[in-house]
Amino acid sequence: MRLIVQPLAGGFELCARLGLIFVSAPLQGFGGGKIIHAVLGGSPGARAGTEPRDIIMALNGKPWDAVRSLTFSDRRPSEIVAETFVARYFTFAKVAVRVPPEPYRPLDDIAREAAGVIAARPAPDTSPYRNPRFDDMRELVARFSRRGRRR
User: Fold this and answer.
1) Among 51, 61, 78, 132, whose CB has the most other CB atoms within 10 angstroms?
2) Which long-range contacts (C-beta less than 8 Å, at least 24 apart) are formed by 46-49?
3) By the 8 A CB rule, do 44 and 20 touch?
4) Could you report the per-residue pLDDT of 98-148, keeping only the tens digit for each?
5) pLDDT higher than threshold 80 for residue 86
6) 3-state secondary structure of 83
């Protein structure tokens, strides 16, 4: 068993094996999920396509609050299924993350890069999540309503 996250300065948490930096503040309305603050380059999280502002709700079917540690194989890649709110598409998806038997880089290098990312962006993004489909529909309705007034 290996610990999944470790606390970092500034109210963040690092999952070194996945290469993800999380905002450690509790998330309301999402069942205790974790917001991704940053994805480290070349990490399993980056290869899986996760991006900042995505929210991981559960891992391997267990709610995030119930996950304390994960078991990774030391001989072959392990696969984790992360139930994720994908911010850029404003939808929920199951994202498969393939984790190699060894960390993708030395753990000290991962921690150093995470500290650099946090120093560059010390505050989480607090802009509201926007549904791109809803915004497109609102714009389309506005266009048609303007067109109808001209006649």
Assistant:
1) 78
2) 46/19, 47/97, 47/98, 48/82, 48/95, 48/96, 48/97, 48/98, 49/95
3) no
4) 999 888 899 999 999 999 999 999 988 888 777 776 665 566 566 666 665
5) yes
6) strand
Rounded distance between C-alpha atoms, residue 55 and residue 33, angstroms: 6
Q: What is the dihedral of CA 61, 64, 67, 68, to 10 degrees?
A: 170
**Token pair in block for residue 123:** 């505050």
Can you read off the two tokens belonging to residue 41? 């380059």
Nearest to 15 by CA among 81, 69, 87, 94: 69
Fold that domain 2-126 belongs to in CATH:
Pdz3 Domain (2.30.42)
116 token code pair = 């650099």
Query: What does pTM read for this prediction?
Result: 0.82
Q: Give residue-wise pLDDT tens across range 20-67.
A: 999 987 777 666 789 999 999 999 999 999 999 999 999 988 888 777
CA 15 from centroid of its chain's CA atoms: 11
The full length of the chain comes to 151
Determine the Cα–Cα distance for residues 97 and 47; give it in Å rounded to an integer.
Answer: 8
